[in-house]
Structures are given as structure tokens and as C-alpha cells.
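Give me C-alpha cells for this 108-residue protein.
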Amino acid sequence: MKRFLPIAGFCAAMLPLTAQASSDDAWQEFQANVDTACRALVEAPDDAEVTVEVNPFGSESFGAALVTVSFGDAGEDRMVCIYDKQSGDAEMTGAFTPAETDAEAANQ
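Here you go.
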């Protein structure tokens, strides 16, 4: 019995390290899945630059990413991609319209 307690204590101390490692791997896989699913939904010319910023954890049920498509001098589109963790399906919002600044509003 005296030998069992130190061994059990050591095993219990190592358990969180094992769980943490697999958890990090799982989150990296999740982020890669969100990135791939969101990029597949982007409709942009070949010369456009697409950036996908995945929220590291999402919510309990969904992943989320900010998607920016840069058209060079022609501007950029910003959208939100929502990823269903259960089904693996993703949906993209429409592009956000640029916010009107106070200076622009005063000139109208």
C-alpha cells in the first residue's frame, strides 16, 4: 500500500499534461477545419488576397472566422464565416459595407 500511493500520486499529477497535449492538438485541428471550410466558400478572383482569421475556440456550438478579401486598389470585402462544430458545415455572411465616417457624413 505504501508503494501504491506515490505511484498513484505521480500518475494523477501527469494526467493534466496528457489531457492538455491532446486538447491543443484538437484545437489546432478545429482551427484548420474552420479555415478550410471558410476558404471553400470565398468567391473571389484569382489575384485577390484572402485572409481567414479563425477565432481560436469559437462558441460552444460554432466556430467563427473573419474573412477578408483584398482586391488591391479596388478595396476589400469583410465577411464572417460561421462553422457548425457538430456537422462541419460552414456559412458565409454577405460583405460588410464600409462604415461612414463623421467627416464623410458632414460633407453630404
